[in-house]
Amino acid sequence: MYGKELILDIHDCDAGTFTRSSLADFFVMVCDEIDMEREDLHFWYDEHGVESDPNIVGTSAIQFIRTSNITVHCLDMLQKVFLNIFSCKDFDSDTVESLAIAWFKGRTATRTEVSRI
């Protein structure tokens, strides 16, 4: 196996956890817990006003790690988080899921793991 990807859809989240500061702290905690070395962190925010499509308004971030990346997309109005971790270094998916659920104060809607060969 070359690596794996964990894909989590987390619903009913506390949108107060969607700030840049909170997300930066989340990445530090997750990387420490699954023993990943953090590299560059980048944020972007898509906001088009109150009448905007709720499927795009929110903060997104990518935490590059030495072995690939962790990406989070937060949808403010829908109170959803979409989390992807891809790494050629193995990690404990159950730990990531538990940490993410606790951090964002939501529930797992879907979980998918993909082995990369």
Describe the structure.
The chain is an alpha+beta fold and 117 residues long. It has a single domain (15-110), classed as S-adenosylmethionine decarboxylase (4-Layer Sandwich), CATH 3.60.90. Helix content is 22%, strand content 44%. It has two helices and six strands, in the order E-H-E-E-E-E-H-E. It has helices spanning 20-33, 93-104; strands spanning 3-11, 38-46, 58-65, 68-75, 80-87, 107-116. It has a six-stranded antiparallel sheet with strand order 2-3-4-5-1-6. Strand 4 (68-75) and strand 5 form a beta hairpin. Helix 1 packs antiparallel against helix 2. The longest helix is centred in the N-terminal third of the chain and has 14 residues, at 20-33. The chain is globular and about 45 Å long. The mean pLDDT is 93.
List the SSEs and their pairings.
Elements: E1 3-11, H1 20-33, E2 38-46, E3 58-65, E4 68-75, E5 80-87, H2 93-104, E6 107-116
Helix pairs in contact: 1-2
The gross shape turns out to be globular
Specify the biggest β-sheet.
Answer: 6 strands, antiparallel
Class in CATH? Alpha Beta
Mean pLDDT: 93
**Beta content:** 35-45%
**How many distinct domains?**
1
Outline of the structure:
The chain is of the alpha+beta class and 117 residues long. Helices cover 22% and strands 44% of the residues.
Name the features.
globular; alpha+beta; 117 residues; single chain; S-adenosylmethionine decarboxylase; 2 helices; 6 strands
